[in-house]
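Can't paste images in this forum, so I'm doing it all in text. The chain is below; anyone willing to post the predicted structure tokens underneath?
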Amino acid sequence: MGDTDVGATGNSDGSHDVRRSALELISLVEMLVRILGSAAGGGVPQWNCGCPVCAAARSGSRPVTPRRSSTIAVGDGDGHWFLGNAGPELDAALRECTCLWPGPEDSTAPIHGVFLTDAELDHTLGLLSLRQASELHLWGTTAAQTLLSQCGLLATLKSYTAVHWHEVRPRERFALRYRDGAASALWCEALDASSGRLPRYARGSDLTSGVVIGYRITDMRTDRSAVFLPSVVALDAAALEQLRGTHLILIDGSFWTDDEMHQQRRGTATARSMGHLPISGADGSLQLLRQVTDAHIVYTHINNTNPMLFEDAPERALLASAGASIAHDGAEYEL
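Text version of the structure:
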């Protein structure tokens, strides 16, 4: 973990300071990964939360950077982009991201579609912000499609634009395609991260397979890859094997400890019961990911209660000593 040649820009804490050679940067069209939002649902600060992190984010009493709900943009290096999930604040993120703006002669933004990890509202409500598109390409599992149909989101979206759903199956590889149908150089493999936990609106459903997935995205021109795994409840030997050889891993950073909600007096649910593997502990993700020595580990989808959001916290220093870091809105990674 930590020794990598992934380049990153825009990180104020200096944790992403490894660069590829100048010759490589000049000669290769690179896959780009941009963080549009790095928080769990509700963002930081969350509107109805007065936990220490949210309070500090409002008052400035300790250094805490505000964050939007988790969303990424993946670019082909030639001005074309695909989104990973679509958080509720997507429209605000797009207004601030100049590379996702349409050109003066363009009738649409350079966003060709959205790949979805699940059907959680915090990961899909932003699709409604894309309703003005003439057509919208979505990649997701049958379970995600079923759930989004049941809650009415897909039907609402289809009232405004032509929606093309592309079925994703765990372990199968597919190309992200441009609006004209041509395959991009960016290929995805779906990683099964399902914990069996359904969105709250779907409790009682008998769906189990494909409810939550992640993606390994590979640039076929350079054979360099990134993993987007914002929700994962376990990292067993098989899962860790799938992460080997990856250059950048954007992974679930929701909770520092399993009983964090109880510690913060925000509820009794554990991290694992909510479908998230905690970071700390002998069986936490930070320790388990030490086995993946060739990847740069970046935590995203961070819950507002997580103490590592304090930039002066010992948890932040512990991450840095392990070669891991925290995503922040606006960061960009070059692969």
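The radius of gyration is 19 Å. The longest strand covers residues 183-192.
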